[in-house]
Amino acid sequence: MRAAALGLLAAMVAGASTSSSWEMTSFADFIKGKFDGVSLGRDGRLSLAPKLDTFFSSEQPVIWSVATATDGAIYAATGHRGRVFRIDAAGAAKLIWTAERPEVFAIAVDHRGVLYAASSPDGKIYRIENGNATEYFDPKTKYIWTLALGSDGVLYAGTSDGGKVFRITGAGQGEEYYASGQGNVTGLMIDAQGRLLAGTEPNGILYRITAKGKAFALYDSTLPEIRAIAANADGSVYAVGLGGALAKKVLAAQQTNQNVSDAGGTTTTTITVTADTGGDLKPSPPEPQKPQQTAPASSTPAVTTSGTVVDLSTIEKSAIYRINTDNTVDTIWSSKEEDVYDILPGADGQLLFATDQSGRVYRLTDDHKLTLVAQTNESEATRLLRWNGSVLAATANMGKIYRLGAAGTKGTYESPVFDAGSIAKWGKLRWDGDAAAGSIAFRTRSGNSIRPDNTWSDWSDPMREGSGVQIASPNARYLQFEADLAGTGAVIDNVSAAYLPQNNPPIVRSITVLTQPVAAATLGKSNGAASSASAASTPYSVTVTDTGDAAPTASTGTPTQTLSRAASQQMTVSWQADDPDGDKLVYELAFRGDGEREWKPLKKNLHDNTYTIDGDALADGRYFFKVTASDRESNPPQSAKDAELVSSPVLIDNTAPVIHVQSSSRTDVVFEAVDSASVLRRAEWNIDAGPWTPVAPVDGIMDSRTEQFRLHLENVPTGEHVLVVRVVDSGNNTGLAKVILH
After folding, report:
1. Which of 1, 234, 560, 584 has its CA 20 to 30 A from that of 359?
2. CA atoms of 28 and 26, how far apart (whole Å)
3. d(Cα 590, Cα 644) in Å, to the nearest integer?
């Protein structure tokens, strides 16, 4: 049973040096590759596609529109030189007309074989018969996007500048049939009842127009543009919603419209993408019966975007809707990656549609099963057409018409590039499928750049055994395979490639050593352990009564109360480390003093990245701390990797300076301060517990571990007084001395 839930990287990686597997099993996996004569079913099965022939090449960048005539000929309208071609039933092509404007977005052919072509921008509609073109109607609008012919020979045109539809009954005989209030009418179709359907932009509304000025909104899409419209055999209607693809057409027209005059105050066409608070990419519909206000005159169309920022990654790019005969609507397909440009219903209930992803043609069944039928490898497939029992697909960049025929006899699928994450050793390639009466062969190549280039290896020799063949491509970070299918009935269900990634060593990025105060009762407790004893309290309590008699509660006599040390220090060593392969890390912490040769272990097999010790555990001096990180718990011993980092020197100073009073009198005191570990930083004095007053050393600069001080006192009151001097070192330790002044 196939594991359809597996993604591109199916195997869970237990560690950097654990064998893993790149597996491709589903539609989502295979669709990322390139197809040449190969189709892809919704079940993720590769098979030979219909034969794809180049039926016609216009040598133009894009084919915008195609139409068939009663004599079997095909007409193709192109951009960006405004050329229209006729291809006869034998496949011979001829240029029959070149418009004065650069784009011919729409053409239509009536039952007599007369061709109507609409040029843009600032173009007109022309009637072309027997190679002669005459002006048929001028709607006086910037763009003419679409044409549709009724069974009675009436021509309808969808335009910009207010989203208007014109009804044209003869040369120069046309009228405004319906004004939608939208920016553009982008699609027209006449249904089986002779009613006109019109798709619009930028509100994405599909209208059914039943009379002049009278319409019913069949559907209001969440996407801004309704492009292609097609009738189904059961009376339902298909419509395509797009996320603003009309802007591509406008941009193409702008870039090639070199002959448009700036004079005359041309009307601005505004293509608007806005966002309401609900997140839909569409503005609020215009108020009914209010004419659309035109923007100031401009020689080029303006593309306007609202200031609201919208996350487009979660918004559909295109969708296909089915409007049923009871006016209910089903979304039968949608995509966040591909634009749909045309649809072609079939009598068997299947729907073909063309997209901009490598010029693809898909087939969608009634039960919503999707198949990639063909890939033209052009930038876009713009139009689909049935002709002489075949399906034709028009494309852009280049403007060609491809013909889909019977199933081909050979094809090639090229996988997306697989990233092993690091240099990998390749194992065996396996595949499931059936060569049937044909053959299946795989080739691989590898490299260390994310895109295949001339630094990659050549394609390997063919591999034909599906049960497993050793991959011959050199060890590298990236791998790609190519599958050749030939003959009849060859299919591929899934492909897997085993690999062993190179184990990368961990990285220790930083070490930090900090001290913090801790209650005296917790001294000697490592790693934050708290003491349950109440040792911080005094050993005796002394009660003083109002009679002046002391009543001892713990023993007889009057004991001296001992004041406990309020706080000491604990030292925390922390570090930051990571592993490029995501391996679990284990740490060792060690230290050595300045001048020592060997590292002394503090703790092994640590999984946390902090460790705490008593601040008094190490004597005064300079120390270094070393953290060693290992990925040995995630890798076999022979491939495990270590990394280490040594901290900057850390000065530990737990000893207070010693003060020696060398001489003293009521007015002068001379003393010396000495510290065994660090430089002295501050000296102060007070009298009778008064405020502290700084004192400078004799040499004026406090920059040594030994300093001399001379203190001159003035205006000392008569009587006995207590002088206290204190000196603080770099470790914030304080030394004190007392002098009695008589």
Report:
1. 234
2. 5
3. 11
